[in-house]
# Entry
Amino acid sequence: MSTGILVLTNKALANAIKIESLLEDTTIYAPSKLKADSEFKVDFYDEKFSSIVDKAYKLHSKLIFIMATGIVVRSVAHMIKDKTLDPAIVVMDEDVKFCISLLGGHIAGANQLANQLADLIGCIPVITTATDVNNKGALDIIAHELGAYDNSQRDIYKAINYNLATGKKVYLLSDIDLNLLNLDIRGFEIITLQDALDLDKDEYVIHIRGAFHGDKAILKIVKENTSYYEIKPQNLVLGIGCRRNTSYEKIQEGLNALCDKYLLEESQIKTIASIELKKNESGIIELASKLSALFITFDTETLDKVISSTDTIEASDFVKSIAGVSSVAEASAYKLSKGKVILPKQIINGVTFSLGIITKYRKEEA
# Structure
């Protein structure tokens, strides 16, 4: 998630250096004629400006141009491909009074970058995306932050964002506590599954699928009778605790039952977490391989700190007598998800599971 800052004049360079000192992983690109002693990371170049733009466009996920907008448009036009591939582009005047979100406002994060710069240096952000102008959230951003953005669903995102921007109702129900996710849900009307029974085919129902606890029969009716759309977070953390030498088959059977009970899909699990004692547990290792999931373990001291820091984790004296800590699955999921546990411990087929979620681009974690 690096940022490139491109300048053409001394005034722009001076302001770029100020900005560089406030942002992480940032490189400034400036023509060699501006070269001066600097402790900051400046890439002085002799080649054509167009070549440097091409290089920076491919190298960075975010670009800040401190120059005229027309120069920027002409320089990047030939490289623009798709909103899911292009970097975020923000343009600033040389006095850095204004900050224009030019390209990649939602998915790439140009709107977020413009607002961040406004907070850091006091410039005025210029944002033109319809949902933002109307102080509404956007479905594509929500999907992106949950790791569930699907480029084939762009028409749905556009339709729902249009409804939001124009003040039409879009209903949102979530299996996950929305306070944990901290999503931008301005404009969405939060409802329960029971509420959704009163809606019809002309009304959009967005369902964030995490660990479903509701009535499956009611859910089926809602799916059939409304313009229903699911977002399935693809960044779930699976905490696991089990006896030594528990077979892969036993763990997999337990996971199958967990997914069936809570309407989960294995593809949503990207990370498995457990205690360090289990780092060589063949059954968990095989499961991680099968899911193409990262397997991370924590030592007892780390998990002890997690357990003592909250009263939401269910402690077990039996588990402590075996593992040295009073919780393994839930404490591991809690640690890795930074407290965003969406399913407390579940003992199925003799294996303990817990689920957490890792969210992206959280402002408080930036």
About this structure: The mean pLDDT is 90.
